[in-house]
Amino acid sequence: MLKPPMLPSLNPAVQRLPPEMLCEIFNWTMVDGYFRRVYGWQTPTAPWRLTHVCQAWRDAARACPTLWSSIHIVAPDPAHDEYSAYLDDTDHGDDDEPDSEVKKPQKRRDSSVPVASAKCQSDAESEEESDESDDEEQFSTADYFPRAAVETQLQLSQSAPLDVVFDLGCFCSASHLCKLLRIVVRESNRWSALTLRWVYTPDIFASLAKIKGRLSQLESLKLLPRKGGLDYSYWPHVFADIFGDAPRLRCAALARHPPGIPPPFSIPHHQLTHVRLWGTSQFILNMLPIMANTLVDATLEADDDSDSEDAPISIELPHVKRLSLANDAEFQGLLVPRLASLTLPGLPGDIRFLPEILDRSQCHLKTLNLGRYCYYIKLDVLLPLLRLAPDLLHLRVEYARHISCFPKDLPHALAADSTICPRLVSIDIDATHGKARTLRKEYCELVEAFWNRTKEVRSLRSVRFIRHERHSGDPLGARVEKMRVEGLEIEYASEASLDEESKEESDED
After folding, report:
1. pLDDT tens per residue, range 254-281
2. Cα Rg of the chain (Å, integer)
3. Region Disordered: start and end of each range (predicted)?
């Protein structure tokens, strides 16, 4: 979040920035899909807060459509601490004072947020509207999702493509939410990305029905039903094909549907190039052949362990370059001849067939990503996989909370065998999901294993620490510094830089 400059010497320089440069800076400071969402209307983050710095920043932010192009209507989690303030009307204060006055939930809205209607109310009017929330009243969905906020974002986004998210729960007011849906549905011809995650009801179906035939700009679709939130008796037959006419659709994330019930939506599977499928292995195996000839990037997450003794189903994915696989027990028949990047999330599951898949595919693996739960993978499974990747150039490992993401004996095995990944050029150590500010010993040993095993001709050139800062208290800092002095390039990067790289890879496809 940007704040007003505190140093007087900086004021003239900041004030002289042209609006175009300010808008570019604003866009660079955004975290995609987070700071632009309408979430509980308590969040004091950009772009709303940017409009309160000064008049120049307000004008620049209001004139930048992309700042307002994410319309995220996200229902709060009832179990979340912030939301519990709205629902808990039995709070009796301190446990030691049973007679204390019962507190009623209050409407809450950040008074610093410039809520404006489609006619753009003035700041004074917005502040007066916010001040009304000081009265103690029962919480309602209309307070949590103010209609004026959605209308303002739609207006200020002008003609920019929209990223739309409906993440709703059964505890929300259906009538108010349907009003919001109808407002956003009017702009469905601008939707470039759509996420549906909620409990489905007839009213919601009726609100969504009008998007059929108006999704000419839709490029990404996520259908994520909440557990236990589907009642297929509500599905009108004509509703099933509302996504059938989406000529630009290329990316999709599809969750499982209840066994024995056909998929509720019909989408143009033959167009998809990037897909994420999770659910039962049977659901995934049924979906893959339909899109096999166009897929470039596939994430497969089976959540069941099958004991079937049937022969594996052979499925060739001739164009897949990137594959993420959490459990290969049912996918041992995969053939991916052009596979270049493999991701192992490391969720509990069986990946003992991966070496066989790689060997049969005769692919040239360039990138391997080990997720933060890969400590489930045993060394006798991981080493054969690495030996089948002599052309591996990039290795990425993630922090886990309390343990290394790879088998603890892996660094020693790599140090003892220089034939494993002899061409490795770079290592990324991703601490995005970890809280430790110091480098774990296992990760330092992993880098040293590649750096020290062939001092004459070193292939390793760079190591990048993601979301891990230099820290004077790091006991392993001296070992990292020693490798830097010897010629290893050390970089400290942000998560945003990875997002840019991922976007560039997708654009290349």
Report:
1. 887 655 455 556 788 899 999 999 888 8
2. 26
3. 82-138
